[in-house]
Fold this sequence. Notes:
The complex is a heterodimer of chains A (236) and B (573). Helices cover 32% and strands 14% of the residues of chain A.
Amino acid sequence: MEMNFKIFRFDPEVEREPHYQTYRVSAHPTDRILDCLNRIKWEQDGTLGYRMSCGHGVCGSDAMKINGRCALACQKLVKEYKGQQVVLEPLPSFKVLKDLIVDLEPFFEKVRLMRPYLLTEEMPPEKERPQSPTDSKKVDLAIRCILCACCMGSCPVVNENEEFFGPAPLVWAFRYIFDSRDDHYLERLRQVDCSDGVWACVNHFECTRSCPKEIPITKSINTIKREIQKELKNER
Amino acid sequence: MIIKHDVIIVGAGLAGLRAAVEAAEHADVALISKVFPTRSHSGAAQGGIAAALGNEESDSWEWHMYDTVKGGDFLTDQDAAEVLAKDAPRAIYELEHMGVPFNRTENGNIAQRAFGGHTSDFGQTPIKRACHAADRTGRVILDTLYGEALRKGIKVYAEFHLLDLIIEENQALGLVAYELATGDVHVFHSRVILLATGGFGKIFKTTSNCFANTGDGVYLAYRAGIPLEDMEFVQFHPTGLYGLGVLISEAARGEGGILRNSIGDRFMEEYAPALKDLAPRDMISRAITEEIRAGRGIEGRDFVHLDLTRLGKKRLQEKLSDISSFVRIYLGIDPIKEPIPVQPTCHYMMGGIPTNLDGQVLEEKQKIVNGLYVAGECACVSVHGANRLGCNSLLDLVVFGRRAGKKMVQNLQDLSWGQLPDQPEEKTMARIDRLKKMGSGEKAGVLRIEMQNVMMEHCSVFRQEEGLSKVLSVIKSLKDRYEGVAIDNRERRFNTDLLEALELESLLGLAHVILASAIARKESRGAHFREDYPIRDDQNWLKHTLAQRTDNGPRLFYKPVTITKFEPKPRVY
């Protein structure tokens, strides 16, 4: 079938204003939106800018806005947009570097602030540290995060408050707060117990709806809130 | 401006990161990567990482070593297999200590599951040896090692593409890299370079590999005069998602999934009576292809079914959730209720840049190239021989990545800063200028698709002389046509059109080496199956291929296989 793509184009170093360019592509219903982008770039217009790598929703490179919703271009199939024009735009709330490519550095920096690595005081045993299946399951949804930033793009709070840590960095905080092997539990809770931390989230659930890995992000943030109320009540 | 670091590591997947983490405490280490580190293709590894921990049932490193050697159809260098299997438990504990969220047994140890070709008691029955975190094992190890790199403050140059290696008088001096965001060409000056650039499955039409897997490091080493080893051995994973090639982990069969043909037969019982659906990948890929050829593909078409319906909802959700979601998204099938259409997909390169057990690159005469290291899929240790076992790849990355890191640090004491030649980036700039100035010509994408199609048709699961020779002449003509390739995009910033055209040179160059090596090897061993020579021939071919670049194409020569504990014997499962 023939599909129309209307794609956001902008080179901030050369142009003052962004514009949209339309392309017509013949596609199979089961083609990925990414396949169509590739066809446009390879066959029609080599100047189109977007990121991609694994092509199946694991690496997290190709997050963008597809007909108004943040998603991975490699996880959306043409058939979902049958009879429609497909509008592709860069992830909202980020600075556009070129076309669909945005500057993710501020996002990565926020994740880095969460110290996304295990903090322990004791020397580990010779073999593995024991951890019960129940404890390990506490983080098994959080470890799905692929840093694609769909949640950041779709969060209304991120859009208004650039100081807000944002959904994915809080997922990373969750992943280590609830890892039974981490010794810095209280310190990590204190770090996100602030107005730009978990308390900035007001339950829009847009992050949860857009997460391509189906992480219950809002619920995880609320779990942290409850943990703070329980564990830090004497400090508050 | 010239950028200087003691150690420059190209590639920020598991091998590159593990080496970086090892070396960073002792030296100034920088990582260069085509993609942001956590986008690296190690993250697509699903099923697990092997180690004889014995957490589920009694196991030993000797059994693991034996399986690795037999899985590699006895082309595996046994000293390397011994290092891999012996060091595996330590490597897993180390990953756990770093924070990898492995699944657990009821008593809190690391859980393990069955995987293809891993057996107890030297080949008797399948054994649970694969440590895992659901079906995203590679991804969580990648995230964890990236966390370690952050903790150590390692400098990362993300979205930098390697375009040339500067090697003079048998010493690696530095490299030339292209910065995607600006279009600037940078010269990096170093005392040690580690190549960890991964595989090059993008040579083939159907592949589980990512778009970044174009073998730049391997090709540039070859172009710089380093021979390439065992390039004819290309692994086709039996269960790629039909049409797309997206990987459906062997863990699906390790958890109890089975393959069926159009008449519902569990056909692997015929081909591998003892291990059945858990036979090594090369054997299952051939079995699937034979079933399809015999008209027993589903609806007479070119795929078979992977049946996971017997696993139940809970197990699929807890242990195989990523692959279940791939199946739902891309094929619209619920694997709880319906079988999954699968076909072989190009997955892994056993061959690559020859190295010793410490990651040091070996040149034509088997001498060490000073300051040049290699680890991971781009290396050929050779620990995987003619066919890699599942779960041995992630293990290879962390075991040999660490060893390379250790050796580099030790080596730095003796390696001084070499003198860079004048304007080492000149040739690279000229290449870029030429592409940008080419007025009109064929698009790189057109040539790439032709290459992928012919390689898939004649150089994949089954091969024979006539087909291989035909493809070789196509590849040669594509290399000629490549000289006339033009690009649309002449901009500086984020010019992936230019980079994809440059990557095509790597892909075509490596395809040529694969073909030359495959045509010469007149026997069948592991993943290299010659229909015109269907028998393994130890008398004449128990040896590693080496391919040296010359102006007239690859010149082949050979070196012996290291055999220590296990004499070659027939490979039946």
